[in-house]
Design a protein that fits this description.
single chain, alpha/beta, 12% strand, six-stranded parallel β-sheet, 10 helices
């Protein structure tokens, strides 16, 4: 999997950290403040969108008077405590980061989440120093499944896309890595269990846990 790779790029939520459970509650509480219920199609509609894209979507769909920047700040404030204190690293992540760093492989995050929450959760686990770059979908033209965020991460690291390995937990993210002409590895996550078949089809590799990398000697 790592042969001839110069950079490894991770999605954050559901990939590096077990955090997908945070957002349904944020949605319920946020819309509930306005007397609204969460539509059944909401997660399907926003999957893969960047933080700013989702804020625009909410503003337009639910006719929210707040600015997009205010919406994002509210979400950051609502999620921050969980990201700092209750969101764990996925099993095997810390060992994998050490493995990559020892071999001189660049490490990056390419996420749809906000930079504030990304930095907070990595710092809370003491792994922020492992990462050579953090790129969010807010910094590029298009969110996942477009390849923009992964291509920008590769550009910042000075690594050719074909020398990059991407870890992702949902289909749009895997598609983004594929569209960037990078090698992709799907990661198991309870939130995307219903996508397991498609994830296996779309990705070059599939892991139920990062610990498999060390248990099997891959």
């Amino acid at each position: 999997m790592f042969e001839e790779k110069e950079a490894v790029l991770f999605d954050l939520d559901g990939t590096l950290v077990d955090s997908m459970w945070v957002w349904p509650k944020v949605d319920i509480d946020y819309l509930g403040r306005m007397g609204l219920e969460v539509p059944e199609d909401l997660q399907r509609e926003i999957e893969g969108m960047g933080f700013t894209e989702v804020a625009w979507y909410f503003k337009e769909r639910f006719q929210i008077p707040d600015s997009v920047e205010q919406i994002k700040k509210t979400w950051n404030d609502m999620a921050m405590e969980a990201y700092i204190h209750r969101v764990p690293l996925k099993p095997g992540v810390r060992r994998l980061l050490g493995y990559l760093k020892e071999r001189g492989i660049f490490i990056g995050v390419a996420s749809s989440n906000s930079k504030e929450l990304i930095q907070a959760v990595l710092k809370s686990h003491g792994v922020d120093s492992y990462f050579d770059c953090i790129v969010t979908a807010c910094e590029v033209k298009r969110g996942k499944p477009a390849p923009d965020v992964y291509l920008e991460a590769a550009r910042r690291l000075g690594v050719a896309p074909e020398k990059c390995l991407v870890f992702e937990d949902i289909v749009p993210g895997i598609q983004a890595g594929n569209a960037a002409h990078m090698t992709t590895c799907a990661v198991e996550d309870a939130y995307s269990a219903d996508q397991r078949g498609r994830k296996r089809q779309e990705a070059d590799y599939y892991l139920f846990s990062y610990e498999e990398l060390f248990d099997t000697g891959k």
